[in-house]
Amino acid sequence: MAKLSNENLFLMEFLVENLQIDKSDCNMPPGELCICFHFLDNTELDVCEHDFSPNKKFSPSNDNNRTGKSCLFSLTPPQAQAALQSFDLIVNVCKKMLPGYNPEKICMGSANISVVHMLSSLLQSNEETPAVKVLQESFQLMDATGRNVGTIGVYIRMSCYGKMIITQFQMNLDDKSVLFKDKEGRSLYRYKKSKKKGKATKIEDLSQNEQDCDPNCKTYKIVDQPPEQFVNQGPFSFGALPVVSGPGFGGPQSFGGPPSFPPPNPNCPMQPCFPNTSAAPEHA
């Protein structure tokens, strides 16, 4: 395990897919239902009903229960060695009481999920970072007496980013747009927040946009397609860009290797311009 010789960054992501709690015979006071995730010595992460829109509550009859949270943390070599012996994700389903009630939180059920095999696979992996492992399964919820009180379906993704995460960006102070680059400095995407309230934010794929390129620089047309699904185009090979989801991501996301672009053209500081080759046709 070569990765054990260095401190590594990990990203743990949790998605609540479904929750089924058996009805209780006792009359429980009103409160908000929350799912609490805790692992190692990190801060507990809560996914509560207020994370959903009003029509998306925890209910077995509702298929829209999709929300989650993520935690970026580091492990030193000694910490990683200890985690390889025991690494459990503790999931508690609780009800947070309204102000004035005591206790403030009532635990309805819990589950212990071992993720040590995910960590071990990541540390042994020879993949280029980020290396990713996924666990998608339903687990039994037990109360304090050991009685089965329901089930919870979770999607867990653990990623290893190595010693550091390197990105570049360039900001235009006039229109508040931000240009994102890969670690070699080649332009990838431009993010521009809309000035009009309620209008969608624009994310521009610079590998397909030629407006920022010098008119004297020859370029080649690339067929329009979703930015996260690059495929091979002629003589140039494009890889899928890594995507990291925040709260509310709706399902598994794919991770791939870094994108492969031609060398940047100094005449085009805002966009890579492709060199002229006989393998690709020119266009005006």
Automatic annotation (TrEMBL):
Region (Disordered): 249-284
Residue ranges, compositional bias (Pro residues): 259-269
Matching InterPro entries: MAP10
BP terms from Gene Ontology: cytoplasmic microtubule organization; mitotic spindle midzone assembly; positive regulation of cytokinesis
GO CC term (a single one): centrosome
Pfam families: MAP10_N
Any GO MF annotation of the entry: microtubule binding
PANTHER family tied to this protein: MICROTUBULE-ASSOCIATED PROTEIN 10 (PTHR21831:SF2)
Protein name: DUF4497 domain containing protein
